Amino acid sequence: MSTTPARVHLDGVTKRFADVTALEQVDLDVADGEFIALLGPSGCGKTTLLRIVAGFERPTAGRVVLGGDDVTTTPAHRRPVNMVFQRPTLFPHLDVAGNVAFGPRISRLHRDEIRRSVDEALALVRLDGYQHRRSHELSGGQMQRVALARAIVNRPQVLLLDEPLSALDLKIRLEMEVELRRLHREIGGTFIYVTHDQREALALSDRVVVFNEGRIEQVGTPNEVYREPRSPFVARFVGDANVLPVEVRNDGTVTIGEARVPVTASGTAGAAWLVLRPEVVRVEPVDGGDGVRGVVHDVSFRGTGHSYRIAVPGLAEPLKAEVPGVTDHHALGTDVSVRWDPAASRVLPRSGGD
Amino acid sequence: MADDQGERLALATTTAAAERGIGGRAGGRERGRGLALVAAVPAVLWMVAFFVVPLGVFAFYSLLTNAFYDVAFPLTTDAYVSAVTSPLNRTLAWNSASVGLTTGAITVAVGLPVAYWLRFVAGRSRVAVLFLITSSMFASYLVRIYAWRTILGSRGVVNSVLDRVGLIDEPLGFLLYSRFAVVLALVHIFLPYVVLVLYAAMAPLGRGLLEAGEDLGAGSSLLWRRVILPIMAAPAVSAFVFVFILSAADYVTPQFLGGRDGLTLGVQIQSNFITVGNWPLAAATSILMLLAFLLLFLLLNALLRFRRLHDLRIQT
Amino acid sequence: MRADGTRVRSPVTTTILVTSIVFLFAPLAVVVLFSFNDGGSVTLPFRGFTLGWYREILSSTEFRSAVTNSAIVATVVALATLVLGTLAAYGITRARSRLRPFVAVLLFLPLTLPGLFLGLSLLVVFSGTEISLSLTTVAVAHLVYVLPYYLLISVAALQRLDPALEEVGADLGGNAWLVFRRVTLPQIWPILLSAALLAFLLSFDEFIITFFVIGPQSTLPLFIFSSLRRTVDPSINAISSSLLFVTIVVFAVSFALTVRSARSGRISVEPDVVGVDA
Hints:
A: alpha+beta; 23% helix; C: globular; disordered N terminus
């Protein structure tokens, strides 16, 4: 990845609107053929970044380089990128084929050439035979497929997707995720995908870029970002997590409730955050062992297991735990012992302000 | 999704706008955006050449010396002095103001319930009624004046009918050639405008608003006083000012329907210009009239703002 | 617009509405009725049906030339408005320039100026520059008067158009002009055409300004004006009615265009103004 030149190279991209800073010094390289997700809460600047790559916004500072060419000041219609918008936005005065043919017609391709590439693109999104439908005859999912076909028919260097599934129903959303992965494999293009849905980002992409307040918090594979969050924000935002403020002793242990438990990090004594994914937390009957003592504060059935909230003395919020197994569970109000594998927890440095 | 599609779209747009930073500045290619204003240049040039400049020249004429169907130097304020000191002008100004005031008040008072009807009661007949009202807006101005003269004249429709049923022995003289006739015709001319302006302002109001009011036990009079009128205050004032200005400055309706006590300043300006040939006087009177309109507009706006402040203080 | 289902009942406002509509149309109906009245005076009772008045005005060369002049001026004004107004509306709605609000205020300002003052101002300038008054000066003045009305409608239509549509067009490689032609215009042309027809009507019927800036020729409103000044000739009913017929036909076409475009869902166009449930 590091040897081939980046398909998209962002260099210190900053965007300010009046007195609001939407993006602050964003550096990012996207490799050729990569499926990258920009993940973050709404207002974090991810859509602004996508619009800057598309050419709809110009950065206040920084450079946008596409395939080696600096396109920072190139208008949208001259950039070799195409975008799929959040809402299915089809031209209402054109039928499906007319929508998909919009780009090829601008390139003044031959009539047969246009028809062939339109058919090809529609086949790729599995809408063969829909050529002469009008947008009001299509479902939301189908409209978004047409928008996809309309974008990929131009063979863009980069395909930009701005929360393309967020306006769809859950069931269709899941189907479309499968379609998007297949499409990425088949056309082998570079995809930049904006979403606020961490599940979607983890499921779809090769790499995830987590945004917060206009800055990149972490870049990594879905696995890295999930397992090795670099900040409490990432830990909380990507997947569910218990993030506990702790004081690490020199021997690598911390005190939670009344129990003293080991954590992996050694030699990093001092204030820290302990990140515990709910699924690594085990909930057991009280047995006089070394677990953290707590009381079942809430329990709910989740199909594949039970979801607990365990009140632990000294902790501001109950501990979340996801326990597999559908047979028996600990009843509300039961005293329990909570344990986890220290290797599955993560310790992050904590400064006073956090 | 069961929710209303429009609402979903609106929601999507707002979130998208929020996502982009600030509402309003989003949307569209950044490059060429500043250039888009170039498209407005021909219209702007036209307005400058045939609106701004002529008005400026006209205002300048008010400071020149009368030269009988022309103007001459030196600069003087004579025209303003005679415009202000003329007792006739004062009477006519009063007539204009009273015509404007009554016409404005009546059109707004009738326009509000009609707009309410269109928004909340109409149902399926809304398109048809809107068609009727808007089409009447485009019905010829002069034809309407003529129509009222036909109806209100001493041998007109109203008097004939009243006479026939035996209600009167002599034709009612006050109907035509009076301020009453002028106001009636002007209400007829401007009512459709007011209805459309108020309806456009009322259209975004949701039914929920009324239901919330009803839910709180508000009767219909309370609903009007507490919910509808406060919201409609600003558009109603705009509509009132619009009608006031256009009817106070009308010079055709009073000529045909006004008689003696229905003559207005507009007629005087026109005749000073066309018949008497005193251009500076006509210009000075016009400028004074425009200043009066501006003053009225600013005054009503200040009142609105004061009312809003007042409301705020009561709430806190 | 109405997700309501139920209707509010409101006998008071319904009464006011019905009264208003009768008030708006009864006087016009009287004129039309008299235009078919077989009698020498405009008084009740009716003497029987005739088309004589229409025959009379149609044979009048003065009337015919007035109608022709009005039609020429209104057509020129409508076409000029269509071009200038559409460009201006595009500029106002799509520009990000800081000058934008000033341009908008300037272009809408004539709405608030009574025709008397505009007419006098233009007359002063035309006579000062020794431009002779003619149908051309009438058209020049009408364009000032009509343009803001056209902008009210076209700006609203452009603002309601989903901005994402134009972004998609640019994203797919269209420059500003191509996007306007292939994306924007196909969505809003019925509205623009409808607004241009209204511009035609406003110009066709304009009297207040025309009175000051017209030369030796006559237009239909001017012809009516002089008939009004001469005493009572019942043919004025037929003249007035012809003007009303032209108005209603042109307006109906304009209205149908707006309603159709709202119904076709091409644009979330003015469900408020047109009142179509989208």
